[in-house]
Task: structure prediction
Amino acid sequence: QIPGQELQQWQRVKTAATEVLVQQGAALSHHHGVGTMHRPWMQAYLGPQAANMLHALKRSLDPRAIMNPAKLLPEEKLATAVPAAYGSFSHKTRAANLERMANESFDLVVIGGGITGAGIARDAALRGLKVALLEKGDFASGTSSKSSKMIHGGLRYLKQLDLKLVKESLHEREILLHLAPHLIHATPYLIPSYKGRLEKIEYHIGMIGYDLLASSKSIAHYQTLSPEQVTEQEPNLKKQGLRGGFIYYDCLVNDARLTLATIKSAAEQGAVVANYVECVGMMMEDHRIRGVQFRDVLGDRRGTLNAQVVVNATGPWTDRILGLAGAGDPLLRPTKGIHIVVLREKLPVRHIVVLSTHDERMIFVVPLGEFTYIGTTDTDYDGPLDEVFAERAEVQYLLENVNACFENLALDAADVISTWAGLRPLVKEEGSPSSISRDYEIVFDDKGLVTIAGGKLTTYRSMAKTLLDETLQRFADRFSKPASACRTDTVPLYGGEIADFAKYVDGETRGWGPLWELPKAALQRLIQNYGTDYHKVLALALENRAWLQPLVPGCRVLKGEVLYAVAQEMAMTVEDFMARRTDLQHFDTSRGLAAVDEVAELMAQLLGWTDAEKNRQLEIYRRKVAKMMAFQSEPEAESGENPGKQPTFPAKTKAC
Result:
């Protein structure tokens, strides 16, 4: 201690301590470097008068801001500091969960971190079961992020007279609207009718049935349109032969973030979850499955996880897990579906337009911000499950059908900005791919393996409920205590504790937008992605306002969203962030390539990557984007040609 230098000494010591904490990646409390700017929060919650009084008191007691250690370090060092409460679902959580998986025993282990597995883990955790979930890739990296992004009853299934599936889907749609109002939004769909009076009567009957089966208080009823009204609503649709149309309502969803919200909800209830952990075998004892063998894909660590029951919810990989368990014949007939994205100015639509194709299927034309996406195809698939990309003939199939239904439209492959392709894990049956039921099947093996196959995004919650109800009944003797009843229909998903979404958005944007100098649209996007948790992204500005800057000029995604994804959403790779924590891979004119260097740099700082690892991550992402767009360099198929198992599009028939 040097007399007269106590404050300076204390400041040097605290600066050094703060610097060490930042270097070690520790979460920081207010007293270790967070808190340059609490005033907006105090103004909002205490009122301007109280906030000003407290601020004046602090300034009088600490004129040099020594008690605000965020002032102690230069901004470039503070930029990577993770505030306290910012490590609740991070890479460190993952590492801790791997330890728990290897050293604890569980009632249930779920293999698969798509929407089906996530729903089962959440339901099981809410019932009081001790549950683990492992996913060999990222959460939602398979089918669950490759859908048409709809929560819907399935008008097509009504046409096939699958009334049970339609009713269940409409019931689940109503529930999910209340569980995740930030992620699921009612949206108008428009169906033009071209084929004559009979088709219009069929649609009319279908619409009445749809509304009756729904009995929804949240969704508006259908409307019948004259040809003139259809043209008024969608002026670019073909007018020749137009007989009228209908507007009805279903929902759009951010499918990847719905899966993530379900995963985080499961974790919030005690589930032990980890991505990039692969099931490589079953633990057998006395002809009974006692758990699984796993491999850490990122660290190559191997271990065993003890569980009373193993659930196989791996979607397209279902048969692979059945093979590991030696549990019966293959269940699946995978079919492939692709979507393409174009600029909305190239295909301007106001509604989701439902079109009839050459081959009597339905495709959707969906407006989303500056973009319009089109899908989907439906073809048998027997290729590699981990490498599924759009091919030229599939893209051409969608383009030809859309071009046939709009006036003076001549989209070609060069207009396509991005694509995605996924596999439907359908239960094997005869018939064309589009005729196969989207219902699901649960298969029990007495050794302790439960497999769920088939199903659709909309019904994931009820699928999980049915599986757990039956599992708890069949294997009651394996659980140490009785489980409680299902509560997933009433407990909101993570971030979804919002009674009235429109009112919530209005209040939040008016209250917080001016404080953070963020446009209303930017704040609304944050709320739609993160729900009530969006405050945690804004809170980063208390430490460093640079977190609220865009990744690169003109990008809608903020730098702080990278930190949030790493610390709160277990993002482990660049692609995790670009494709599933955000939608930059698919809904950005550069396919995220303009921002990817900044994302990799931030993630490298947060996750401690070497330069070599950062460059490897960048190369993986760029290679994935190149494969996504490789169809543009493939030769164009002639209309009517059927290369391999690609869709056929008869040259002499017309869509619509």
In short: The CA atoms of residues 344 and 368 lie 8 Å apart. Residues 6-83 form one domain.
